[in-house]
Amino acid sequence: MAWLPSGAAGGPALRGARASPALSSGVAAAVMLYKRALPPSSPLHSARPSAAAQRFFCQLLERGASTVYLGRWVHSATCSVSVDDRPHVELTDGSNGELLQKREMVGAFQRIPMVMPATDILMSAQRKSRNVPPTKGIQNIAKRERNKGAKQLDALMKELSVPLRTYTENFPRRRDLHPYERSLIELTFGEGYYEKVLGRVDALRKKITSVGKQHASVCAKSLTKREAEERLTEGRKELEEVFQRGQNAIEDLINVAKALRSMPVVDPHIPTLCLVGSPNVGKSSLVRILSTGKPEVCSYPFTTRGILMGHIVSNHERFQVTDTPGLLTRHDDDRNNIERLTLAVLSYMPIAVLYVHDLSEDCGTKVADQYITYKHIKERFGDRLWIDVVSKCDLLDRATPSRFDDAADDGVDDELRRYREFGPEDAIRVSVQSQIGTQELKQRVHHLLTSQRARIKADGGDNEEAVGEVR
Predict the structure, then answer these.
(1) How far, CA to CA in Å, does 214 sit from each of 115, 243, 398?
(2) DSSP symbols for 150-189
(3) Across-strand partners of 67?
(4) pTM of this prediction?
(5) Dist. CA 132–CA 154, nearest whole Å
(6) CA 135: distance to chain centroid?
(7) Which residues touch 381 (CB under 8 Å, ≥6 apart)?
(8) For a Cys-Cys bond, which of 53, 257, 323, 420 suits 308, CB 3.0-4.6 Å?
(9) Least confident interval from 97-101, 130-134, 199-203, 418-422
(10) Residue 322, SS3?
(11) What is the DSSP string of 370-401?
């Protein structure tokens, strides 16, 4: 990856090259920086960058850019784009260049580091630090012993603190995450818990560093061999006690890491079908017949307590399917965290919606309540591509009081009455149990996701055009 470090008094300069007065703001500077940032073998050395690319680099110079990273759009195993693969800017004014860097891509949870158990970190640090020898050539016994003691305490401190620093630096910051992943963290752990755990780990690292440096300094001032040995023992004991007192923070971080890695990755570049509806209306059963996903299917509400993923492969095309928790009839502010997971997918991911209705009321939710929830979600997310499905249609012949009680229909508008009888307009009637309408549903879903792919490509082309100018 090419990079441009800040130069001396002449402004941004290239590695191995002197700062030139020509490297000032303007098109000439942008052209020079653009070409020299490229690998020597690049054919673009002889090509003139576009006007958009020149303007981009001029803006960096005007804002005081000290370092410019140039990269390619590279898809990871989860088809996400890592931060280091994007154009990145470091500014001399201390800002992080958020206006010039697009970082909000999903998949960060799959890149978090593995967290070692606290006991493993401690045992490894003890073993490595005890094997640190004194500096060669020291003849005086007292000097050699205090040198060895100071070095071993310093090594123990580093072996304990470096892993903790690695964790705090490589776990993603919430503000850098995609809004969908930010909402997953908040809904899974609660507001502020994620940052609190990382803060406790960092506080433990700082404490270990402080205690280690203090004891290493004291040991280095020992006058005799015995004194050096005693101070080494005292320092090692206190460092280990400090680490053990704070090891609960590491265990909590392990649990956080496990939970984050288990969260499904919804790739925004792949068309995704999101099943939505009231609890127990049959969403999970439809996921099982439409995709590779195998969610739990039971006859009680809220069987699905998280976002479950499956995949569809049709005509050599790959699509995603998400099964979401059911929505109750209530205001969004009153929803629990399980329901808010569904709203997070609808709000932040480019998905197509398959809304499931159960007019038989076998789900336990009255048709009128399903209708209210449906209208609310349809009004809020009506810009999504959409299919309505009436599930359990084989049960509709069984009359239910709320559907056919004339007294219950008094004061009910015609739209709700039609909904009770037929469901939404153009809804597909399906029964997984009797295999009614499943083939039609699969065909409609394939057509819907094909249209969603075209929409994603159209939106992606608009977003990537400007970045492609500066590659």
Answers:
(1) 27, 15, 79
(2) HHHHHHHHHHHHHHHHHHHHHSPPGGGS-HHHHHHHHHHH
(3) 90
(4) 0.67
(5) 10
(6) 46
(7) 346, 347, 353
(8) 323
(9) 97-101
(10) strand
(11) HHHHHHHHHHHSTTS-EEEEE--GGGTTS--H
Of residues 19 and 327, more confidently modeled: 327
Note the pLDDT tens digit of each residue in 202-256.
999 999 999 999 999 999 999 999 999 999 999 999 999 999 999 999 999 999 9
What residue type is 93 in one-letter code? D
**Model confidence pLDDT, tens digit, residues 128-152:** 999 999 999 999 999 999 999 999 9
Alpha carbon 291 to its chain's center: 24
Domains by residue range for the chain, with CATH: 3-106 (no CATH), 110-261 (1.20.120.1190), 272-466 (3.40.50.300)
Whether residue 343 has pLDDT greater than 60: yes
Quote the tokens at residue 69: 């990273």
Residues 6+ apart with CB under 8 A from 164: 201, 202, 204, 205, 208, 250
SS3 3: strand
Residues 286, 140: Cα–Cα separation, whole Å: 79
Top-ranked range on mean pLDDT: pick from 31-40, 205-214, 393-402: 205-214
Check residue 188 and give its pLDDT.
87
> For residue 451, is pLDDT > 60?
yes
Q: Which two tokens stand for residue 6?
A: 């800040």
Q: Which amino acid type is present at position 44?
A: L
Instruction: Tell me how far apart the alpha carbons of residues 407 and 86 are, in angstroms, rounded to a whole number.
Output: 63
Q: Would you state the torsion angle of the CA atoms of residues 391, 396, 398, 401, taken in this order, to the nearest 10 degrees?
A: 90
Task: Please state the separation of Cα 354 from the chain's center in Å.
Answer: 24
DSSP assignment of 444-463, as one string? HHHHHHHHHHHHHHHHHHHH
Q: Distance between CA atoms of 95 and 87, rounded to whole angstroms?
A: 15
User: What torsion do the CA atoms of 436, 437, 441, 442 make, to the nearest 10 degrees?
Assistant: 60
DSSP 301: T
